[in-house]
Amino acid sequence: MLKVNVYVTLKKEILDAQGLVIRKAIKQIGYENVNEVRFGKFIQLEIDDKNKSEEEIKKEIDYLSDKLLSNPNIENYRFEMVGK
Amino acid sequence: MLKVNVYVTLKKEILDAQGLVIRKAIKQIGYENVNEVRFGKFIQLEIDDKNKSEEEIKKEIDYLSDKLLSNPNIENYRFEMVGK
Questions:
Q1: DSSP state of B32
Q2: What is the CATH number for A70?
Q3: Interval A17-57: pLDDT, tens
Q4: Chain A residues close to B67, C-beta within 8 Å
Q5: What's the domain count of chain A?
Q6: Domain housing B49
Q7: Phi-psi region of A18 (alpha: psi -120 to 50; beta: other; left: phi over 0)
Q8: Which of A32, A40, A54, B66 is a Cys-bridge partner for B42, taking CB atoms 3.0 to 4.6 Å apart?
Q9: CA distance A48 to B25
């Protein structure tokens, strides 16, 4: 069983409303030194990689990240395999 | 300026409804080998660390993660400093 972490983040040019709200809240409780907050998704997958090459698995995660886990119009993703 | 990544995940014993929906969707498009999906948050902070020790910054991130970025009743968090 392969563990994979997928990180989905809003593209730089997209306004991050959730991040702005959190930054405001952080400032309100007195932390003036937090200048930017970007809010994203962190998805952990457990994949059965039996009988599949690393190449095939990577292709599969790429496909899933693009089609299901992110919205390519406004988000970027990256993933890393973190072990068995 | 210090960059910090905070990862917020549901505790193991908490039902992850979002993760289950995604897993179902993944199976529906034909990927039977994805056995678990856990859905979490990925928050990127930019912190002005001038005049602060690493110790102080860590305490600050700990506090913010506990009070604002996560719900300690149902979520865990971890963070890492990823550079300047």
A1: T
A2: 3.30.1280.10
A3: 999 999 999 999 999 999 999 999 999 999 999 989 999 99
A4: 29
A5: 1
A6: 2-83
A7: alpha
A8: A40
A9: 17
CA distance, residue A50 to nearest chain B CA (Å)? 9
CB A69 within 8 A of CB A41: yes
Measured CA distances, B13 to A56, A79, A81, B23, B70 (Å): 32, 25, 24, 18, 16
Burial of A3 (0-12, 13-18, 19+ CB in 10 A): middle
Q: Which residues, numbered 37 to 66 in chain B, qualify as contacts with chain A under a Cβ-Cβ cut-off of 8 Å? A: 37-50, 52, 60, 64
pLDDT in tens, chain B (84 residues): 999 999 999 999 999 999 999 999 999 999 999 999 999 999 999 999 998 999 999 999 999 999 999 999 999 999 999 987
Phi, psi of B15 (to 5 degrees): -65, 130
Q: Helix, strand or coil for residue B71? A: coil
Q: Is B9 helix (H, G, I), strand (E, B) or coil?
A: strand
According to DSSP, residue A68 is labeled: I
Query: Which amino acid type is present at position A30?
Result: G
DSSP-assigned letter for residue A81 = E
Beta bridge partners of A47: A2, B34
Best CA proximity match to A43, nearest among A23, A66, A20, A21: A66
